[in-house]
Backbone:
């Protein structure tokens, strides 16, 4: 029985990676314009770059599908391992957590595009729909609050993720989910560092960069 659960868990993780690796922005941009999303704008294979360079409709499609990838990956893991949905205390839940991380890793480092992908935020949010739905509600509330103040959606989304491990501890009392939240933050920060450095060089100083971030969505 344990052997079967482990084999099922490994299969679920591999499938989750492959689902997360589906290059939504690349495919959508090809269909809309015939271009390679990696060669336009920031080169990021994600919803934000697609929205800016291809158009709102394409950007929304990419965002929705990328969120769906995270949800689908965890849902498939539930089915493969045989864990009921929202059973937060199941003994094999660590397979679901690893599958969630694998889906985000697939989006960030997709095998289909020689490991060049997006920033993983949308797919990470998708995993929370099943893994930590209450924490996702808190994240969404914080995003809306920060967006109302800063008018910068991307910055608001990144900052809001800091609430996930704290909320996971108070609501679930389980280090597995706190660890998942922290690991996800580490991945998102790791991927965002090159973008932040490039933006800082372009702005010339931290003060200029912050001013640019706070007024970017106001223009």
Residues:
């Amino acid at each position: 029985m344990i052997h079967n659960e482990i084999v099922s868990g490994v299969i679920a993780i591999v499938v989750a990676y492959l689902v997360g690796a589906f290059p939504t922005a690349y495919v959508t941009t090809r269909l809309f314009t015939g271009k390679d999303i990696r060669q336009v704008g920031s080169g990021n294979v994600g919803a934000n770059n697609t929205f800016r360079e291809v158009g709102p409709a394409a950007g929304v499609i990419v965002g929705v599908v990328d969120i769906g990838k995270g949800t689908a990956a965890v849902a498939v893991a539930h089915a493969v391992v045989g864990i009921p949905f929202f059973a937060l205390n199941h003994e094999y839940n660590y397979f679901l957590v690893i599958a969630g991380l694998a889906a985000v890793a697939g989006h960030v480092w997709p095998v289909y595009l020689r490991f060049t992908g997006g920033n993983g935020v949308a797919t990470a949010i998708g995993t929370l729909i099943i893994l930590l739905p209450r924490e996702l509600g808190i994240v969404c509330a914080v995003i809306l609050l920060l967006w109302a103040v800063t008018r910068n959606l991307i910055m608001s989304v990144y900052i809001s993720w800091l609430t996930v491990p704290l909320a996971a501890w108070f609501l679930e009392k389980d280090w597995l989910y706190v660890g998942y939240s922290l690991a996800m933050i580490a991945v998102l920060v790791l991927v965002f560092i090159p973008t932040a450095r490039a933006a800082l060089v372009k702005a010339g100083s931290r003060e200029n960069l912050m001013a640019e971030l706070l007024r970017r969505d106001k223009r």
